Automatic annotation (TrEMBL):
Name this polypeptide is given: Zinc finger C2H2
Principal location class: nucleus
Record domain C2H2-type: where: 11-38, 67-96, 172-201
GO biological process: regulation of transcription by RNA polymerase II
The species this protein was found in: Penicillium bovifimosum
Amino acid sequence: MNSMNHYAPTFECETCTREFSSQSAANQHMNALNHWKPTIPCEMCTMKFRTQTAADSHMASMGHYKNYCRDCNRRFMNDNCLRQHLNSKTHRGTTVSCPCCKTSFVTASGVSHHLESGSCPNAASLNRDRIHRIIRSLDPNGAICKKQIGWHDEQPSVTYSVTPRAFNGTSWVCYICKKCFTTSRGLEAHLNSPVHKEKVYHCLKRGCPKEFHSLASLFSHLESESCGFIRFEGVQQVHKRINDAILGNRMITGF
């Protein structure tokens, strides 16, 4: 048997040094003594466990969850949810101020929505269309504005009201995109939002095809870090540069 290597095959225990003449015998041994090799990994370190309960216990005690906020002791479904939490008011505070009324917001997109929606008490004349007009006049090279031939200003005074004809028996339906709403007020807010207006801004990253109806949408895209152009902290600096250009009537240069 030595010369021909005719020994019977052996089946090893996954944990100890025992060997068996059949896989079923090895399995019986490992079942009886719980000698199965650990296969369930920790999400952060190299440790492995035999049961999900043991893995969860380890990760909970060590804070080893992959998408985990240690400060809040909260776990999140994915990296995007964790990032949104870390960029929320809980961790960022309200450090971005409206240039007109000094109300504080968490993000640049929040300030932009405040101004574009005409909600600022010290700048009631500002809205999405007027802000775009100002930025377009300061952005001849199209750093953030789309280059549009024959652009005409939209009519900001036009508002839409919902009639009973929009109700289909179960939902209130947008006649443009067919999106359904549970209330007429929800549909009315949708119709009077920028969502169906022309896309007038583009992403600052060369090669990113994203275009936006509003400045708030552009900043929201950048804050999400989805295209990798800039980190969340840097978006607030871009917002400040645009504000400074508007208030100082200076040209907007590339970013």
